[in-house]
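Blinded run. Sample ID left blank on purpose so nobody reads anything into the name before looking at the predicted structure. Input follows.
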Amino acid sequence: MGEQVESELISINNALEALHQDVVGNGKNALIIMANHGQNVSYEYVLEIDPDYLFVIDRAAVTGGSVAAEQVLDNEMISMTQAYQNDKIVYLNSQLWYVASGGITGTNMMIEEVHAAIK
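Blinded prediction complete.
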């Protein structure tokens, strides 16, 4: 059992390294935000970072919140970012990232989701 876990952890590490190399190789930057939960991130901050990719975890999608992330991000400041202008705002699978996160399988799925978005 220990060898299998070690193998899976090596696989996760390799996947993260491949993702990192793809991002660095592209000269891009990214920002992940959780809409409607966690630490507040201002629109000004997002604009200052001006991410090439904006990854969004929409808490309202899994908790039944009243304001969806798309509504929160539908504003003039976000529309001035590279992510918005190049259609690179990626709404991540909220069920996976918010509810079912953790574990080897879930971690691999998260990495794959981000990696697929940047290719």
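Unblinding after everyone has recorded impressions. The chain has a mean pLDDT of 86.
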